[in-house]
Design goal:
It is built from 2 helices and 8 strands, in the order βαββββαβββ. The chain has a 4-stranded mixed β-sheet with strand order 1-4-3-2. Strands 5-8-7-6 form a 4-stranded mixed β-sheet, covered by helices on one side. β2 and β3 form a beta hairpin. The chain is globular. It starts with a strand and ends with a strand.
């Protein structure tokens, strides 16, 4: 049985979304087609951006799920990522705050999909 988990983010333009996520993650895609692009996040985990599944995704539509990037380290590491992303012009939805499990913040990709940064645990 395969034990890989692929988190799929629906986007309007897969190549543009891949450039956005590649810049945030500091990595290149591991698999590319015109409408489906993945990033190998490590053993058993991939992030995919997929276009063509929905018409005209809008950042204004509320989202009920999010991709969580769990980072090693403590509050200083989360805060450093926040400052880096803010300097790149990434849309910040919630500023860094303590959510009971550690310092976290939420950003959005250009299509309005939510991206949480939080400590690994």
């Amino acid at each position: 049985m395969t034990t890989s988990v692929v988190s799929i983010v629906y986007v309007n333009d897969a190549p543009a979304a891949a450039r956005f996520y590649g810049d945030l993650l500091g990595m290149s895609p591991s698999f590319e087609t015109p409408g489906y692009i993945t990033f190998d996040l490590g053993p058993g985990a991939d992030l995919a951006v997929w276009s063509g599944q929905f018409e005209d995704l809008s950042p204004g539509v509320p989202r009920t799920s999010e991709v969580c990037l769990a980072v090693d380290g403590g509050p200083d590491d989360v805060d450093a990522i926040f400052k880096q992303w803010r300097s790149k012009g990434v849309t910040i939805l919630t500023e860094p705050h303590d959510a009971g499990f550690g310092l976290t913040f939420v950003a959005a990709d250009p299509d309005g999909n939510r991206i949480r940064v939080a400590p690994r645990g």
